[in-house]
Design goal:
By secondary structure, the protein is mainly alpha-helical. The protein contains 4 helices and 2 strands, in the order E-H-H-E-H-H. It is globular, with a radius of gyration of 12 Å.
């Protein structure tokens, strides 16, 4: 199985301004990757750095969403 590592900015991309085409496309790519993880097509690799960076996120909604992603 292919393993992928997503950094904190990738997990938070869906919360960025979606009116910009580049950001919209990157958000769609992240959504597809996460669907592939859920259906066990690819495996996501986590790290203590991701957990630390997320714990420092001042936005609780983003922090909770990333926590859910990291549990997949």
């Amino acid at each position: 199985m292919v393993k992928v590592y997503l950094d904190t900015s990738a997990y938070n991309r869906p919360f960025d301004d979606q009116t910009q085409p580049k950001i919209f496309l990157e958000s769609q790519a992240i959504a597809i990757i996460l669907q592939m993880v859920e259906t066990q097509i690819v495996e996501v690799v986590s790290s203590s750095v991701l957990e630390y960076e997320n714990s420092r996120n001042p936005y609780s909604i983003k922090q909770e969403a990333m926590n859910r992603y990291l549990q997949i």
